[in-house]
User: Fold Mitochodrial transcription termination factor-related from Cinnamomum micranthum f. kanehirae.
Amino acid sequence: MTHPRTVLLGVERLGEIGAFVKEMDFNPLSVNFTFAIQVMSGMKKSNWERKMKVFERLGWSEEDFLSAFKVQPKCMLVSEEKIVKPSILAKCPNLLLYSLEKRTIPRCLLLRILIKKGLIKEEPGLFWMLNICEKQFLEKTLIKYQTLFLKY
Assistant:
């Protein structure tokens, strides 16, 4: 169990959260329904509303927000500083979960080197570059062009 505090909620509070999540049209049999309940149970209503307002200030409609929350309920757990370009996040809310220092910046730097050296003709899309797993990313970039990197 990753969130034992959910079990410790009172029956009434858990029922309120379940009803609220169900109103958002989550499938009660899906894993995201469970994640949504976990997120909601670990967050005060005031924090929820504050984060919703951050998304609204960025131009998100309620529909955009609910769409992102349905795809990735944990997007509400990230800090306000990680909430950036709304059009990108609405399409792929998982981007909020990635570390800038450990994933985004290193991958961008590596791809920039490969593009400058002419090894990659087309710049890959942001979603592809950040969403593929570490093993696939390394196979398609670093391992594929390892002889170039061994020279330096």
Q: What stands out?
A: The longest helix spans residues 100-116. Residues 5-96 form one domain.
